[in-house]
Design brief:
flat, ARM-like, BRCA1 associated ATM activator 1, cytoplasm, ARM-type_fold, BRAT1
């Protein structure tokens, strides 16, 4: 360990070490917890107390901790002596003992005191009435897991019969306990093999350690038993093991159970097929098995053939996400995944009008057809398949090629079935159509996949047909709000991708589609449902972001009623709609600002009027959402140098931050600070400063003329007053942001080697008030003192004062204070111990902290 690492370790240990105050409180806490007359302590407090003991055991040897604080083992002894301890206290004691016993020295110490046998042995809670409580069983399992870090603990459990208890707890009625028991067995098996084996295992020479041998025999016996529950428990254990352990010895273990596991694929009485899919997928992700030739992948192939489409779907998509997989298995998995989509495409027309998705099937097509023609399974199978397709299509790099065009046609067919737009020619298609019509679940899933598919190249389908379907969903009064929102999302994705499509380059067709879209949007913006109006405005904003550089889009938008309706919705009675209208109107200005001379829009949309309206919303709207949207739009305008809209940037910024700093909503104030940050960076860049505030000074900027000019600008817009007052904001994110900006500002005016570092504020010129500012900031009452006029106030519009303040105030110290959690005092161990004492009634005054 290097000297620097040693210093950090020592520092961490000092920070975690028990303080004198805690050492005095701990005996009273332990006595109170073991006192049956006291009310039970809060479970949350007990969890935090355990966490604290865990921190202490990292800071110093656990044995020393126990010896220096005899009240801790006395607590365990006292709880064991109680005839009927509280289940929560007993569970806490079991976990605490396990935590302490994780150290081998402390384990031996507790063994000598006979405490571990009395807690985890046959004479402990195992054979008492307390064992009926699930929290006690959970505490027992957790305690064993915590101590399982050395050989003596492993041998103690195996020789004392504890491992049989864990086998039994695998089938515990409490799922939490059963799951914990299974994870514990995995941990014990892994620990036993990796700590006790001296040579690599092989199929011919598998001399397992004692504990590992007991667990493996239990797995094999369970798999061969007639008990379905035991079989499932062992399959879960194997799934967890192969998911967490990638060691070569796992292959030796697998070879011993492979034949039995494979038999469950065709054994209907067991009904564990869905668990086999999880097991095989975890194995396929392991390098131990993915490189195996033959047997394992043959089993995967068999599983894909024998599992039902619903069971095989998760396995298929998991295999398709793997980059290391035999090509024939990948093709088979893709076939399983696409089979329901192929069936939909074939059911839509007889004979098949377009090419199908698949040349051949893995499973019997009649099985898929039967599921799709059943009302109870059709929607579920399609939603699962569509969810898996969305998962695959969302990957940056697909390890498999998908037939995008046929897949798109299949999606369009599903949407037509759901909306009654398609009259199928086949009996199967008619049946599926009857089931799917009006099915919102399938509509939402299909639209999600359609949106993701827009980003993939190679969809050479007639786009007009696709937009006909999407427009039908946007127009239909029967479209639910959630489906409408998904329809908007899919439409916006495809519209944005439209200019890039090789199969679609007709300007007339583009304009026709956009006109149809805006006609529908006009109607939706007038909907009586606020959710629909809100979604429509969000849709408009997305379109403007993606298409504002396209001439056809700008002309079509500005010739429609959409801009006027958007402006009208700035006065909508619903605050969410007003907020979305603010965002949409703000983005509209990026188009109208550059189209002011166009005869298309005439006088219907005045850009200056928009600025005034948004400023009015920022200052007067009674709800916070529109005000947040307004300050966010102002920042976006400034960031994108929207100078055509902002005639006087200084005046605009000054007014915006004066409104924002007095807003009651902290997110609006934070938005004001983000506006300030953009303004100061742009101002410095304009005057010759590099874009990065921490970059080396340029010769142009280091001149006092340029520095003074920027300082004067910042003072004129009242930037410093807002920043320094925000340091004492009651909402910590605002203070943190203000401090970050001030640090960046300081680095822009003071090179690191010339930064003034004043330690004595008495020497500062009194007329500047910097000493007062520094003292007031420490007290956290700047805003109050400024309002009352007390003290020697700072002139925040005086450049010389502000330059001196930036170089004088210890902003780093303020930054550290602001980054501390607001409840760091209440979260201290001392506060926790006081809370526990207050809860059990041993503190005269209520000292409990609320956190």
């Amino acid at each position: 360990m290097s000297s620097l690492e040693a210093w950090f370790v020592a520092r961490a240990r000092r920070r975690l070490a028990m303080t004198r105050e805690c050492r005095l409180l701990l005996p009273r806490v332990c006595a109170a917890l073991a006192d049956p007359r006291q009310p039970g302590s809060d479970d949350t407090c007990l969890e935090k107390l355990l966490d604290w003991f865990g921190d202490l055991s990292e800071a110093e040897p656990t044995l020393k901790l126990v010896q220096d604080n005899p009240c801790v083992p006395e607590l365990i002894t006292s709880v064991l002596a109680l005839p009927e301890p509280s289940p929560s206290i007993l569970s806490f004691t079991l976990r605490l003992a396990g935590l302490l016993a994780a150290s081998e020295n402390c384990f031996q110490h507790l063994q000598q005191e006979k405490l571990l046998v009395r807690l985890f042995g046959k004479d402990g809670p195992l054979n008492s009435a307390m064992w009926e409580d699930a929290s006690v069983r959970s505490g027992w399992v957790e305690g064993v897991r915590r101590m399982m870090h050395h050989q003596p603990a492993l041998h103690f459990l195996c020789s004392g019969g504890g491992i049989d208890v864990i086998f039994t707890l695998q089938g515990d009625p409490s799922l939490f306990v059963a799951s914990a028991a299974s994870r514990l067995l995995v941990h014990m098996l892994t620990f036993s093999v990796e700590s006790e084996m001296t040579k690599p295992l092989s199929a011919k020479d598998c001399d397992w350690p004692v504990c590992a041998q007991m667990i493996i025999k239990h797995i094999e016996d369970s798999l061969q038993s007639s008990s379905v529950s035991r079989i499932k428990q062992s399959l879960k254990l194997l799934t967890s093991l192969f998911g967490s352990c990638r060691a070569p010895w796992t292959e030796v273990l697998w070879l011993g159970v492979a034949k039995q596991v494979e038999s469950f694929l065709t054994e209907e009485s067991v009904q564990a097929q869905h668990m086999l899919a999880d097991l095989l997928l975890n194995m396929a992700r392991s390098p131990v098995f993915c490189d195996t030739e033959g047997s394992f992948w043959a089993l995967v192939t068999s599983a894909l053939e024998h599992l039902t489409p619903v069971q095989a779907g998760p396995l298929a998509v998991g295999i398709l996400r793997l980059h290391e997989c035999p090509q024939d298995v990948r093709i088979q998995a893709l076939t399983v995944l696409l089979q329901p989509m192929d069936c939909i495409l074939r059911a839509a027309s007889q004979p098949l009008e377009y090419a199908g998705l698949l040349d051949e099937s893995v499973t019997d097509p009649a099985t898929v057809e039967s599921l799709l023609s059943s009302k109870s399974s059709c929607a579920g199978l399609l939603c699962q398949t569509l969810g898996h397709l969305e998962e695959l299509l969302s990957l940056i790099r697909l390890p498999v090629d998908l037939p995008y065009t046929s897949l798109l046609r299949s999606l369009m067919t599903i949407l037509q079935f759901c909306n009654g737009l398609l009259i199928p020619a086949s009996p199967l298609g008619s049946k599926i159509s009857q089931i799917l019509i009006g099915c919102f679940r399938v509509q939402r899933s299909a639209l999600d996949v359609l949106a993701v598919l827009s980003e993939r190249k190679g969809c050479d389908t007639p786009v007009e047909s696709l937009f006909d379907i999407l427009l039908a969903y946007l127009e239909s009064p029967n479209t639910s709000h959630t489906v409408l929102k998904k329809s908007f999302q899919a439409t916006s994705k495809w519209l944005v991708c439209l200019p890039e499509m090789s199969c679609f380059n007709s300007q007339w067709q583009t304009k026709k589609i956009l006109q149809d879209v805006f006609l529908v949007l006009q109607k939706r913006l007038c909907s009586p449902s606020w959710e629909v109006r809100d979604s429509s405005l969000e849709f408009l904003t997305i379109l403007i972001k993606g298409l504002r550089d396209q001439d056809e889009f700008r002309q079509t938008l500005l010739s429609s009623e959409v801009p006027r309706l958007t402006e009208d919705l700035l006065e909508d009675p619903e605050s969410y709609v007003r907020a979305s209208a603010v965002t949409a109107a703000g983005h509209l200005t990026f188009i109208t600002c550059f189209a002011s001379e166009s005869p298309v829009i005439g006088n219907q949309y005045n850009k200056e009027n928009t600025v005034e309206k948004l400023q009015e919303i920022l200052s007067t709207d009674p709800e916070s959402f529109p005000r947040r949207a307004a300050i966010s739009i102002f920042t976006r305008w400034l960031r994108q140098s929207h100078t055509g809209l902002l005639q006087n940037t200084e005046q605009f910024v000054s007014r915006a931050i004066q409104i924002a700093e007095s807003d009651l909503d902290w997110e609006v104030r934070l938005g004001g600070l983000e506006l300030v940050e953009v303004f100061f960076v742009q101002t410095l860049c304009r005057l010759g400063r590099p874009k990065c505030p921490y970059a080396p000074f340029s010769p142009e900027f280091t001149s006092s003329v340029r520095q003074n000019e920027s300082l004067q600008i910042f003072c004129r817009v009242k930037l410093f007053g807002f920043l320094f007052c925000s340091l004492c904001d009651c909402d910590r994110p605002v203070g943190q942001k203000a401090c970050d900006i001030l640090l960046a500002l300081r680095s822009s005016f003071y090179p690191s080697n010339a930064l003034k570092d004043f330690h004595e504020t008495e020497d500062l010129p009194a007329e500047h008030g910097v000493a007062w500012l520094q003292r007031t900031l420490r007290q956290g009452s700047l805003a109050q003192n400024i309002l009352t006029g007390s003290g020697n106030e700072v002139d925040f519009q005086d450049p010389e004062s502000m330059l001196l303040a930036l170089g004088t105030i210890n902003l780093e110290e303020l930054h550290d204070d602001l980054n501390k959690s607001s409840d760091h005092v209440e979260k201290s161990p001392q506060s926790l111990l006081q809370d526990i004492l207050a809860t059990v009634g041993t503190v005269e005054e209520n000292e409990a902290d609320c956190y």
